[in-house]
Amino acid sequence: MTTETSELLLPGYWVDAVSGAWCSCPWPSDPDERVRLASMSLGPGVIDWAEGRSDSPGLVHPMTGHPWRFTPGQKRFLILWYLLDGEGRFVYRSGVKRGAQGTGQRSVCRKYTRPSQYSSCTIVKIICQYAR
């Protein structure tokens, strides 16, 4: 029995084929649909800027000093977070990045706030309110 067929996999979750991680972010399995979503989002531009693939130098990992790299789950979240509808309005007006310890939600929050001043819940609320 694999995790894909396990009764432990909750409704609404799916298993990422590359990492084996359980995911709940609504992400299409069709590659053409993924390209369509990315083309309607500001997320790829944010990702390119943060990872240094623009005219700007990009972000630096706070612990290693190396160029910043998002995880695949963080990229999916950013693409959906900055998704625009046909009229240029944000599809999602609020959201929560949830995950087990070590899944990278704090590193996304760290880009917008100083975590030492806020709890994790406050950081998520700040992102939801002001990151747009």
**Proportion of residues in helical segments:** 25-40%
Biggest sheet record: 2 strands, antiparallel
Gyration radius, rounded: 16 Å
- The computed structural class is mainly alpha
Distance between the termini: 43 Å
Shape assignment: globular
Give the ordered list of helices and strands.
EEHHHHH
Count of extended strands: 2
Portion of residues in beta strands equals under 5%
How is the largest sheet built, in terms of strand order? 1-2
DSSP summary: helix tally: 5
Would you spell out the secondary-structure blueprint of this structure?
Blueprint: E1 14-15, E2 22-23, H1 31-39, H2 43-50, H3 72-81, H4 105-110, H5 120-130
Notes on the protein architecture:
- The protein has 132 residues and is mainly alpha-helical.
- It contains five helices and two strands, in the order ββααααα.
- The chain has helices at 31-39, 43-50, 72-81, 105-110, 120-130, and strands spanning 14-15, 22-23.
- Strands 1-2 form a two-stranded antiparallel sheet.
- Strand 1 (14-15) and strand 2 form a beta hairpin.
- Helix 2 packs across helix 3 (72-81).
- The longest helix is centred in the C-terminal third of the chain and has 11 residues, at 120-130.
- The radius of gyration is 16 Å and the shape is globular.
- The N and C termini lie far apart (43 Å).
- Mean pLDDT is 75; it is low at 112-132.
